Amino acid sequence: MRSTVRKKPYPQLSAKAADVAAMLGYSDTKSVYKLIRQGKIKARKEGNTYLVRLDSVRAYLGMDA
Question: Phi and psi for 29 in degrees, rounded to 5?
Fold first, then answer.
């Protein structure tokens, strides 16, 4: 009989700009891209997609102190 080991899910570290816009309550992604350009949130580009670091979004919102 095999024992099943439950693995803890990895925490989500990044999200697409559209997902971050929804989290912040914006109707479109232009505001998120503006925050990236201004350096207020951190992101990296993978192909044609920006992946926004969720820790930088939390810091922007003042959730990390």
Answer: -90, -5
